[in-house]
Amino acid sequence: MKRVLSGGIAQESHSFNPIVTRRERFTIQSGNDAVARNRGANSTLGGIISSADEVGTEVEVPILFRAQSGGPVEDSVFEEVKDAMVAAARKGSFDAIVLPLHGGMLTTSLSDPEGDLIQALRDVVGPDVPITAAFDLHAHVTERTIAPLDFLSAYLTNPHGDQAATSRRAFQAARDILEGRLDPRCAAVLFPMLTLGNDRTDEAPLRRIHAYAKAQVDNGSVYDVSIFNAQQFLDVKDLGQVVLVYGNGENEVAQRVADEIAGSLWASRDELVGTYPSLDSCLDRIETENRTLVLGDQGDRVAGGGPGDSTFILNRLIERNFNEPAVVPIYAPEEVQKCMAAGVGAEIVLTFGGRYSTVSPPIRAEGRVTASGSKTPVVYDGPSDGGTTIHLDDWAIFQFGKIQVLLTSQPYAFIDPAYYRAVGVDLRVTKLIVVRSGYHFSLNFASVGECITIDTPGITSYYVDRLPWNTARPFYPVDKIDYSPRHYLRSRQAKAL
């Protein structure tokens, strides 16, 4: 395998977030720069590059767009990426295509843009060039997604720590196909059920289910297993769980294993609904135990597609006269510009937040601008996405009392402490650190403080029965339905059986 085409677009979308994700939200890389910047990173492109380096394979990245989660992506952004990838494929002489995607993206008109992109690439290169992909385990996967792919791998961890390892599986599958070691036979089971909060893979019941899946791979029964616990805020047809098993040259064992895992997920369906502690109980602990807590705002998780401007936590701090050092991020682009215009050191009155996440009213406060910046580099410590570089767009810190509010012109999930260090926040003395993530921050902030996801309201809370669904329902547990799986088989010779 001498040359591999890679790249594409990765973003996780939320159907009920009204903020369309436009081009300026994306980190855009291409060519040798993309390869250099991702070499060694624990990212899906990083894993492809590392695998290629080990065997002397060239990786070409015509374009890579990556954005944090949010509302559906503007159609023109997706079309730009698709056109660039298809044009590169047409130039040809690639032995394989290995794609570092997410799988849970929407555009303003498409419910499966990844499937659309992959099919367009398949139409160009024909049936003989292997196309493989690595997806987040929260991807929305359907038969249409699987059909043009020879192999699809999902993260095996939540919180995600195996991004590079996942794309290594995709790269190795392409290599095994080309070198005659793999004749992939895919068996998929799809059924309308959501996991709602208790979906860490290092805790029961998913830990047990993943252990069984791993044992089937380790003992050679099947080539690979992926379990997709779909993103819970996609109002799309056929939303639900997907178990994807690849056999080598035969379907029977793969289908049996897929059915067994799907059955275990369904049997555990009520265990997969979680509960979380209250905000006040955590604030009490900070004040009485002198502890540092890193709190994930469940209701407005940018990592889950939320808008990032909820004031629920901040309003409660004000109501309680909270008097410990704290930092809270708020998406507030207009107020960032006001802070920058006033200048560092200025005393000003601001009204901010609560524009899109309306569960709590905007904040009006008098405070001081203590810092500001633009295009500030952030290099993740990891392990989740370790080594990945992003840039904070315009930002400002507005402080009143002991509370620092990090105002940003774009929504961010803040899953890594590097965000706060980059803007000068001293986490060693900060007792309350708020992030807009539910899981992934707990890996990266483990050395900073105790990491807790709290029960807060908003469009990314797991009370999904409160959302205005139009298309996705019925699904369990919102709808008390019976187990109704769909089965899908695919081999390289017969695209769908």
TrEMBL record:
Q: Which Pfam families does this chain map to?
A: DUF1485, MlrC_C
**Cross-referenced InterPro entries, in alphabetical order?**
MlrC_C (IPR010799), MlrC_N (IPR015995)
Residue span(s) of domain Microcystin LR degradation protein MlrC N-terminal: 3-286
Location of the Microcystin LR degradation protein MlrC C-terminal domain:
296-470
* Signal peptide span: none
Name recorded for this polypeptide? Microcystin degradation protein MlrC
Tell me the organism: Aurantimonas aggregata
